[in-house]
Amino acid sequence: MVIVIIIVVLLLLIGLIYVLVRNGLVSLNQRVGESWSGIDVQLKRRHDLVPNLVETVKGYATHEQETFEKVTQARAAAMQASGPAEAGQAEGALTAALGGLRVVAEQYPQLRATENFQQLQRQLSELEDEIQASRRIYNSNVQHFNTRIQQFPSSIVANQMNFTEKQYFAIEEPSEREVPQVSFGTSEQPPGGSAPAQPPAGNPPEQPPAGTPPEQQSAG
To answer: What is this structure's pTM?
Structure first.
């Protein structure tokens, strides 16, 4: 009878642990999904601002067609991106394209002085700050989730629920991935482009025998 009671208690304890672990994983999974939904909404708001900003700049810089096309293409790619990893790369390209648009706008003081441009710039900057703040929250939730599903006994429950690691979200501009070119073994050349000439290799001048008086050395 005692053995039966012990077995029942152990089964109840195992069942309680399973329920607690399962509920914890479900909660973490929901937090990751909710935080990503917030980022997705902010990204869509950002995408909606881009055409207005392009049209405003285009009114003063009609000849910058290449810059406008880059921004338009980057926006289209960002809107079609799916998943945090792909979205991060696309948003990084869009950020770089918007940087080129800002460079163009800096060349036109009248454009920067317009109320419409200032308002769009302010809204875009506020959105980018909100996206960065939300990104940190999302990545923190992803880190907690990924760590939990690798720990025992959560890993067993995660496998049963088909939970896999979540992707991080990072906006990285293409320029940040470029590796600087470093050259080793080159030395500075003096002005004129060539090193000073060295005397030709040859036999050293003859030295007088040791003990020869100075008068004979000069006479020789």
So the answer is: 0.72
